[in-house]
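Now for my pick.
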Amino acid sequence: MPFIVDVTALRKSYAGGFEALKGVDLQIEEGEILALLGPNGAGKTTLISTICGITTATSGTVKVGGHDTVTDFRAARAMIGLVPQEINLEPFERVQNTVKFSRGLFGKPANPALIEKILRQLSLWDKRDSQIRELSGGMKRRVLIAKALSHEPRVLFLDEPTAGVDVELRRDMWEIVADLKRDGVTIILTTHYIEEAEAIADRVGVIAQGEILLIEDKEKLMARMGKKELEVQLSEPLREIPSSLVSDVLRLKKDGSALIYSYDTRGERTGITKLLADVAAAGLILRDVETRQSSLEDIFVGLVHEGDAP
């Protein structure tokens, strides 16, 4: 089955020689949520802008729903909804008219019931006759989301959609994302809130310095790359680790109250049994023991740092 978004060898260079995208390949399946993570300047927005036809690629191809974004631009763009980072709205236009106008730009017939549904979902119905300039920053971002949904796109790009907005909007946004996924809409999300990506994404992509470092199923990624930590809490704090316990996988908590042991969950042996025996042999008394799994943020930071290595 063809991918709904198919990016091949995509490059974007600027006149000064800077390469924002360096041969990006990206295939996205219909109905999935892909979280695209990367530090500032990694190329996330450039990639989204190029797929949406806002930025012209230096080379490579992009197809959306089988339509080439250059040779069949209108058909490809009609399938895409975009919520950009920047708020760029006509300040004197009214909310409802702004959303209706966006639908009309794609040649869609009037659908008052749909517009009302979208505005209600985003808590904008009571503001439908307000001018954009009268809205708060959070409400303006809700209007951007409504505009992106107005023509019923099959692929929705969310470029940092909840950056700097209130908790209520973030909650509403993810409820809408869940509804859209149930309807089969494909969603590509960039975010600085890694916990959100961890909560809602099916797959995770990491981009740094214009290159895709990894794209993988979220659960498989965390199982493959995630490590666990065992915290051995001590009855009496230590100033340093006893020489008999010194190891490159064992460290002392800053306040000396616990030993932190890192281990690979994929290994045949975790080494925990030996560690606990060695702790007892060193004369240390345990107060408690607990384990924790690496988060997606831990994995992301590790990948980006690897990408920065010379």
Q: What stands out?
A: The chain is about 35% helix and 25% strand.
